[in-house]
Amino acid sequence: MKTIAPETETEAGDSDFKPLTAEEAQQWRQRHPNVSIWRIVWFQALVGALVSLVVWLVSGKPHLGVSAAYGAFSVVLPAALFARGMARQQGSAGAAMASLFGWELAKIVLTVAMLAAAPRLLPGLSWLALLVGMVVTMKTYWIALLARPGVRKPV
Q1: Residue 114 and residue 150 in contact, taking contact as beta carbons nearer than 8 Å
Q2: What is the signed CA dihedral for 103, 109, 112, 118, rounded to 10 degrees?
Q3: Which of 39, 49, 101, 133 could be stapled to 68 by a disulfide with Cβ–Cβ 3.0 to 4.6 Å?
Q4: Mind listing the pLDDT tens digit for each residue in 86-121?
């Protein structure tokens, strides 16, 4: 037999939740502006190009730079597909959630397909350079989010 713990106070009474007024909501929106998903995609593309250039210049081997560029492209192209899909969605919260999962699945499938095709598309493929391009490009997403205006930096 299950026993339910008695409530000493109602949850509503315990909660510190206070709805914002229209003015407070407007101030919050000004302090926390929306980040354009396209800005993040372009930032990733720029970082991917820089990484491939650095890999090429440091190694002196063009095929390593191409491998790093393909790794970055394996992140940027699916991210652009995801951004386009999410930017077009409209409707209810349930539809938005379904769209999010659907486009995320498409992004993963495209990334895996691009990685599977890499050995056939790139002669002299360097998996290490490809992974460097991918990882650095993926991590720029977090940098772009942290660098946006209105984000409080930890002290």
Answers
A1: no
A2: -100
A3: 133
A4: 887 677 778 888 888 999 999 999 999 999 999 999
- pLDDT < 50 stretches in the chain: none
pTM of the model: 0.73
3-state secondary structure of 133: helix
Count CB neighbours of 141 within 10 A.
Answer: 16
Six token digits for residue 131 = 């992974």
CB 65 within 8 A of CB 151: no
**Vertex 93 angle, CA 92 and 96, to 5°:** 90
Q: Report d(CA 55, CA 69) in Å as an integer.
A: 9
Chain length of the chain: 155
Per-position b or e across 70-105, b if 16+ CB within 10 A of its CB: bbbbbbbbbbbbbbebeeeeeeeeeeeeebeeebee
- Give the helix ranges, DSSP H, for 20-126: 22-31, 37-59, 62-88, 93-121
Instruction: Give Cα 59 distance to the centre of its chain.
Output: 29
